[in-house]
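Record type: ASSEMBLY
Status: queued
Input:
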Amino acid sequence: MSQAIEGSARPVAPGTANEPTPPASEENARREDAATLLQRIARGNVLVVVLAFVFAFLIGSILILVASAEVRAAAGYLFARPADTFRAAWDAITGAYAAMFRGSVFDLQGFTRVREDLESRGGSGSYVWGPALLRGFKPLLETLTVATPLIIASIGMAVSFRSGLFNIGGTGQLIVGAVAAGFVGFAVSLPPVIHVLVCIAAAIIAGGLYGGLAGFLKARFGASEVITTIMLNWIAVYGLAYALTTSAFTGANKAQPTSPSVGENAVLPLIAGSQNRLHLGLLIAVLAAVFLWWLMSRSAMGFRFRAVGSNPRAAEVAGIDVGRSAIGVMFAAGALVGLAGGVHILGTEHRLTGNVAGSIGFDAITVALLGRSGPLGIVLAGILFAGLSTGGRFMESNQSVPLDLVQVIQALVVLFIAAPPLVRYLVGLRSVDRPGAPRARGRRAASPAAAAPAPSGSSAAPASSSAPEPRSAGTDTKGGTA
Amino acid sequence: MKLELRGITKVFGTFVANDSIDLVVEPGEIHSLLGENGAGKSTLMNVLYGLYQPDGGQILLDDRPVQFSGPGDAMRAGIGMVHQHFMLVPPFTVAENVVLGHEPTKGGLLDLATARRTVREISARFGFDLDPDAIVEELPVGAQQRVEIIKALSRRAEILVLDEPTAVLTPQETDELMAIMRQLRDEGTSIVFITHKLREVKAVADRITVIRRGRVVGSADPSADQTELASLMVGRQVALTLDKAPAEPGDTALQVRGLTVTDEAGVTTLDGVDLDVRRGEVLGIAGVQGNGQTELTEALLGLQKNVRGSILLGGEEIVGRSTRQVLDAGVGFVPEDRTHDALVPDFSVAENLVLDQHRRPPFGSGLSLKLKAIHERAKEAVREYDVRTGSVDSAVSTLSGGNQQKIVMARALGRDLSLFIASQPTRGVDVGSIEFLHRRIIAERDKGTPVIIVSTELDEITQLSDRIAVMYRGSILGIVPGDEDRDVLGLMMAGYTVEAAREAVAGGARTTDTQLVDEGEIV
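Status: finished
Output:
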């Protein structure tokens, strides 16, 4: 051929090649390990989440001040006696957050009261401490109770998010699961243990089928799961409302839109004494988290889910049935959310009402995103979210701070977490990187450090952390470093 | 305009992409920047275009230092850039795209008449056949590239940077582009031509600067020997030809008869293809992109919907089987576009290596994955294919294009095959790795596996193939021996039948390559 060059065809063993090494080479990786540990922590999501809460609570404080009658009254004569205003402000803020803590984690007053009461009656040792601690931690147990269905539902959401499907159908799947578990719970009579297991199985299957329906519509007809799941929510909400007007669901008392309580054998047993609502569902939530870990990082099915979610075309070429995967994902997600509905009915609510799902279906989306769709993250985020709502309720009754404020704080937390660069900017960790834009548009950026104001040691060299690597500049999207 | 880069340095984290690079482009010269993938060519040009700020060094235009804080500054200074991946708005017309960003207005309204006139004027000057009102996404790739060039010229670019402009072009379009480049140069435009293809450099460049690992490692005249350039570029001796033993074909393993594919709009994209591939031979499929090659390989893999005809693999019909069943029958497949069709970007190297094998032992049991076996396999493949990666757990998207391609090849070749199909097996891969991947394909052939190679690079086809089928408009125009004349193949790719092509070549028709050979520029 025309370009043949004789004598030069000396074979060279691959591996001895002196090729350019990409930035992610072994050497570099090792060198960076030590140098950038701090930097990576600073960049890490955990810090962003913590800071998001700090900022949300700071803004929340301002709102507490505005909402507080005492502060407003004191501010009326601010210039006459400024100390009054500041004292009132301080009292309002500390009072509100102390109440939130007391209502969600530990009630010191309750603890002290029980302890003194028992001691005055001559008790000592574990006879005093046991009941006292149980009373003190009553708010935490209540928080865990509220967190239980939220965590399970969020795990279902996480399955779909990590598989690239945006399931908005939490409410619908939760209702369907709750209805199935509740109906089997009050309409059928079965022996202990078996009854509750059958109820749970009914919830899982019903939720799975309801979620799977959205998956089927996507796989077979290309319908967007965002739209179908939202519509299925309404169908479930009004379907339940209608069902609660029929005697099949309301039993004898047709005037009340509530079902009878589930049978005794169908109730999830309490696990922290009869004074607390905490039930065995907590264990189910933990098992669900373990299941999520196994499904997404150990199972062949989860491998396919993730592959399809990330690059459906490559998955298809590798022999993975993309449609079947979508149905599988939505079935698994729906089954878990349905389980959450079942646990909610069998553990806490015991009877179906029109508003049985509450806002769990939508909160689960937030919790799943907050927990980065990972098992541990979801458990922590779920408890946190539940704590905010139990604490907020106590704050409202105890300090007359409106409950709406807690919802504002929740919204702010999510808002801050959704914009990590904003959080880093607010604490001065480094300059804001506009996603997609080449950094350092400024005219002065001539030195490597110029783009990053470095206020502390931890950010000595963060300039390149999310600045476009050579290959992200759109010049070589085939993946080669430019 | 004279362009000078002095000591340009660009650092990303700990990675030095450009290390004190000096470059002088004289007015009216085609200056070729030659280097492998990842050598730092594109980074350098992005610095020049104001997309990156240099960490050191100076840019001088006509001996005056300048500073660009963005592409707008660079454009105003007379620098135009044609990116490898076009920056066009697909549903807009040619005229709209050309004026985008500096739209002429009349009384506050868009003045499209002026825009059309601009397009017509420049088209006429360079003999481009471009309709200003054509929708860009409906144009062939070569024409889209011309839109990019007009866009740059309409802003009075005196220095034109072409980043890997031929990567997306057919041989004919490449020849046309080179003619345009020469004409631009003759009118005084300086051109920086970025490429890693030696043939093109030799055909068109006035000066050559070779970059390796972010440094200038030498400059050369176009008269320099190709092997010399290749060695300079790679940093070691490379073989540009492949030593391979003659094929020892066995019995027919794959028999394709009357294979016809229609797309969703009812258009016939593959029309009655007949093929035989025997054990231990490489059948090359040549043709300009978009003449049915994609449909052919996808039909073989069960990825096309409306397929008629018959495909017998080892005597068994595979038309109508699912992709999974075809893969289970022992077909190894390298798709033409690795990022789109082959790799899951946020999966690790190890996970990508078992993407199509994860159900089967030893990597999985159907229910759960055997992480240990997957890990071992990945380490073995990374060692065998010399994949440059920090760890087998790194996301595949962090690897360079060449290393990604090695992973796709390693996956397809990682088991006993009944048929190996590779589309563009070395697309975007540098010279050093091409050599290795070609060897690996021939080794598979020598094991007795029937091999189909689809490539738009004639070099690759002629080096690997024992027989060559040329595709044109969904049909096979003819099947010729592996050592068929290049010009005959080139003409067949343009739609000549075998006989007509041979006749025309005998009558003196030739392409750029053979002209150069005659002029003694290419050995």
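Annotation: The two ends of chain A are 31 Å apart (CA to CA).
Annotation: Confidence is low (pLDDT under 50) at residues 1-43, 431-482 of chain A.
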